[in-house]
Amino acid sequence: MGGRHGHGRGGMGRRGGRPLGHGDLRLLILSLINETPRHGYDLIQEIETRTGGTYKPSPGVIYPALEIIQDLGLAEVRTEDGKKTFHITDEGKAELEREAATVSAIHERLADLLRAEADVDPTDVRTAMHRLRHAIIKTVRHNMANEARQRRIVEILNAAKDEIDSLD
Q1: pTM to 2 decimal places
Q2: Which of 50, 53, 96, 101 is nearest to 75 (CA)?
Q3: CB 97 within 8 A of CB 110
Q4: Which of 56, 64, 75, 76 is 20 to 30 A from 154 (CA-CA)?
Q5: Which ranges of the chain does DSSP label H, i.e. alpha helix?
Q6: Which residue intervals define the domain Transcription regulator PadR N-terminal in the entry (predicted)?
Q7: 36-82 confidence digits (pLDDT tens)
Q8: CA-to-CA distance for 44 and 39, rounded, in angstroms?
Q9: With b meaning 16 or more CB within 10 Å and e meaning fewer, what string describes 23-46?
């Protein structure tokens, strides 16, 4: 279930508060699918990455929002490789233009969350683990075809594990 850091429940973690106001998730999703067509799980992961892991919307939040966006004609679904991929429509692009200032403010709040993660308590092991996880996900996701890079990540992680094991 949702822990202290909001995993799996769309929580904000230890910083408290909501990163998105009413209607912001719809605009955030539209802006993300405007960048590139995405499926629901990818949207969850992208939002989590862009907040440094401090906010991860749950499927119970993302999928109903996607249905509403579809119902409003702001996005359409296409099945690609067996997955439903959401594509922005002309109506969705017009909505983003009308709401450009709000969309910009949403992205700035998410960037603030990412920057805030850099200033953490040096004894907070959970946060350090969380940040490491997201660094790995981001690096691997953007370099999927680079087998040498993936091998190097595994080497680094194994060395860190061995060093931690050697602590008393």
Answers
A1: 0.61
A2: 96
A3: no
A4: 56
A5: 24-35, 40-50, 59-71, 90-98, 100-117, 125-142, 147-165
A6: 29-97
A7: 999 999 999 998 888 777 778 889 999 999 999 999 999 999 998 88
A8: 9
A9: ebbbbbbbbbbbeebbbbebbbbb
